[in-house]
Amino acid sequence: MDILLIAGLWLDGSAWDEVVPELTALGHRPVPLTLPGQGDGTTSATLDDQLAAVVAAVDAAPEKPLVVGHSAASSLAWLAADARPGKVAKVALIGGFPATDGRAYADHFAIEDGAVPFPGWGPFEGADSADLDQEARHRFESAAVPVPEGVARGVVRLTDERRFDVPVVVVCPEFTPDQAKEWIAAGESPELARATHVEYVDLDSGHWPMTTRPRDLARVLAQAARA
């Protein structure tokens, strides 16, 4: 199966470099995406531009793909399911939950000169970054790409209720499946509350398991693809 890999804020397709060979060895076709404004050299990209790139990858897949969204890109993966509900086999969300219709894609951080730079580790101290050593943090900082304002402040638009029939796997890294279920039951993820098929997978790591536990993450994604 094709597995489309969408990294979260500040990351390009190289974020999956250690996951790709593991997925290939497990018999799948990983496709890491470098999106407009996310490592391709453009700075004026919008959320619509990024969604168009993801949808194009879905359309190009020889069979229905598994679409993987990490962190904020969980919303992009879900938007792809909304845009192509009949062409997406399943959505896997790593450490994130899809935004609802009418919400900004990622308005959590300050904008500087038309973009959102990596804010440093302060907002991520604790469970998010506990498993990142200094070398891993330095690599992340060196590779981080400021997110264009048009992406971060882009408004999520969901229009096709058939998205709720697309199976979802919630991969739980810095939180547990029980916590995810509690948050959804409490109304913190209205989209997943309405999804028909949701399963949860525990992955004991920080917020960036593609860096700290790439082999285990690949196995989780391969299992999701097989199921």
From TrEMBL:
<dbReference type="Pfam" id="PF12697">
    <property type="entry name" value="Abhydrolase_6"/>
</dbReference>
<protein>
    <submittedName>
        <fullName>Alpha/beta fold hydrolase</fullName>
    </submittedName>
</protein>
<dbReference type="InterPro" id="IPR029058">
    <property type="entry name" value="AB_hydrolase_fold"/>
</dbReference>
<keyword id="KW-0378">Hydrolase</keyword>
<dbReference type="InterPro" id="IPR000073">
    <property type="entry name" value="AB_hydrolase_1"/>
</dbReference>
<dbReference type="GO" id="GO:0016787">
    <property type="term" value="F:hydrolase activity"/>
</dbReference>
<feature type="domain" description="AB hydrolase-1">
    <location>
        <begin position="3"/>
        <end position="219"/>
    </location>
</feature>
